[in-house]
Automatic annotation (TrEMBL):
Source organism of the structure: Cricetulus griseus (Chinese hamster)
The protein's name in its UniProt record: Cyclin N-terminal domain-containing protein 1
Any one of the GO BP annotations: reciprocal meiotic recombination
Gene (UniProt): Cntd1
InterPro entries in the cross-refs: Cyclin-like_sf
GO-annotated cellular components: site of double-strand break
CDD domains for this protein: CYCLIN_CNTD1 (cd20541)
């Protein structure tokens, strides 16, 4: 890790995040970086397959309806992602073992059908579990969940609801309190504030939340464009796609891309300084930050932005890459 934190000026009271000691922030950032490194190394070929737009939108809307914090919605998506990947892997393993036995193959198909039939229940359980991990007082009650499921036409008892939560917990070995991309974004914003970033962190934070929502909702298109840009080829091979899975699980890279894109939107003139800070803090190359920012900007403002007030993504890309080159 490069770029130690600078002492924070005593008169910068406008920064609302800066209530924690510098040493604590550095330790927390190092801990997140280590967790991220382990997650990237452990990324499996099937990870990411359940971060589909419709699923993410359902979780976001449900969290909003239940007045949950943004962190809860991201946590719920990640819990659901890991649970469904684990379930899919288990089904595939059973199918491989049982493929020569027709009777057992029917049992495998029954398990697959059961997984599909209980998907909504599992999704709601993931949201409920995520709400219990939040420091906020708002926890989704069993009554609220049962009423919601009933409104959708799902008949479910309180016991079945509790069993569903327990099923998710057991499947993930009770390891559900994992950092989300928001944790990385907020930690880096905290460090940027201490290091004298010209764009106010509170201002960046609001834009970061919007862009993070966007990345979750358009997960596949954004990462597909990033893959094509990284290999400079519009038709990636299957092997290239599989190797790129680890990038999709790199939350530190996602966080710097989100912050850099937010800085570009908020204050184009300060973008170079923000990228310089992010590169120094994380060690991620400025060119990588630029590419990710461009992918996010392309999907947020489109390829044909009307008018002259805002730069188009193509102009943004040139500006990003020029600024990145000047920082290397």
């Amino acid at each position: 890790m490069e770029g130690p934190l600078k002492p924070r000026p005593a008169n910068s009271s406008d920064f609302q995040f800066g209530a924690v000691a510098t040493e604590t922030i550095e330790n927390a950032l190092l801990h997140l970086a280590q967790q991220n490194e382990r997650a990237v190394k452990a990324a499996a070929g099937r990870m990411g397959s359940f971060r589909e737009t419709r699923i993410v939108e359902f979780v976001f809307l449900l969290s909003e309806q239940w007045c949950l914090e943004k962190s809860v919605s991201y946590q719920a998506v990640e819990i659901l992602e890991r649970f469904m990947v684990k379930q899919a892997e288990n089904i595939c393993q059973q199918a491989t073992i049982q493929q020569r036995n027709k009777t057992e193959l029917q049992n495998w198909r029954a398990l697959k059908e059961q997984l599909f039939n209980k998907f909504i229940l599992r999704l709601v359980s993931c949201v409920q579990l995520a709400s219990k991990l939040s420091f906020h007082y708002k926890i989704v009650s069993n009554i609220t969940v049962l009423n919601f499921l009933q409104a959708l036409g799902y008949i479910c008892t309180k016991e079945e609801l509790l069993e569903s939560e327990l099923d998710v917990l057991k499947s993930l070995n009770f390891q559900i309190n994992l950092p989300t991309p928001l944790a990385y974004v907020e930690m880096l914003l905290e460090v940027l504030g201490y290091n004298g970033c010209l764009v106010p962190a509170t201002q960046l934070h609001a834009t970061c939340l919007t862009l993070l929502d966007l990345v979750y909702l358009l997960h596949e298109p954004i990462y597909e464009s990033l893959l094509r840009a990284s290999i400079e080829n519009s038709t990636p091979s299957q092997l290239q796609g599989e190797k790129f899975i680890s990038v999709k699980e790199d939350f530190m890279l996602l966080a710097v891309g989100i912050i850099a894109a937010s800085a570009f939107i908020q204050n184009h003139d300060c973008w170079s300084q923000v990228v310089g800070h992010l590169q120094s803090i994380t060690g991620i190359a400025s060119e990588s930050i630029a590419e990710f920012s461009y992918a996010i900007l392309t999907h947020s403002v489109g390829t044909n932005t009307p008018g002259q007030q805002q730069p188009t993504p193509h102009k943004a890309a040139r500006a990003l890459r020029t600024a990145a080159s000047s920082n290397t």
